[in-house]
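pasting for the record
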Amino acid sequence: MSPRSSHVRKPEHALVPVEGPSHWPAAWWAAIAAMVAVFLYSYWPTLQWMAEAWMKEPDYSHGWLVLPLAIVICYQRADRFPGFEPNVSWAGLSLVGLAIVMRLVGRIIYADFLDAWSILPLIAGAVWCLAGPRALRWALPAIVFLFFAIPMPYQAESMLSWQLQGIATDLSTILLRVFGQPAVAEGHMVWVGDEKLSIEAACSGLRIFVGMTAIAYFWAAVNDRSWLDRLVLMLAVIPAAVFVNSMRIVVTGLLYRAFEGESARHWIHDISGLLMIPASFVLLWAVGAYWKALYRPVEKMTAREFLKDRPAPLANSPG
């Protein structure tokens, strides 16, 4: 046997294992700090626009939690990190180029949301270049989760809010009638006797819809369940958000009938809005818990393991 044949060649695409961040050399941290500084300098106006929406618009107040939760997603999936490619994956520059094009188009047409959306392909392209395609697949759930920090385009937000207003009006009217109240819907208003409840854009349920979608996605990303389980929970967001918002309108209407003072009604409106957030999350958790208990993962067993757990047949038994 020749010396060449006895030499074991290292696989061409073998991944390089990486230790935890506590073992990273100072050069790595310096490179990360430099990239973060360049990113902040380039996207500072866009980040300011996003932070302003998080502070001033209740529908996007959850934006402050998106980045920490994205880090939690990566931490929960740390045991599945495949490692780094030994060489730079230049194909990742295609996503970086896409991010640059999105930024240019966003500036030309004055679309701040498109500028913010470019952050996602930029991060994905950087991970692809520096770590490889398999590392990108590992990080993709956390990268996609960053989408929930970006405010929706005004046209999409208005259209979705308008549709949710109509659904909330019709459903709350039906529920009020179930509770024995003389409710009549008129446009985006509900008349309960002589009491008028205006279902304004702020009461459309958009805030709950976006927040519940983010929480459902987070649950799907950190849980090791089948794709069907994750899909069911994501689809449950739509009826759950509509139901919770409609129940808020129903409770508000019933309490308005009982308390006529302006100060009391102001408290009723504000407190019902605050309670709607934990109520929606509890309902979503209940849907996930019920589905998880109803459809448990099938335990796979070999024939040897199955026969091992069965009692041995008696010696005098026939056959």
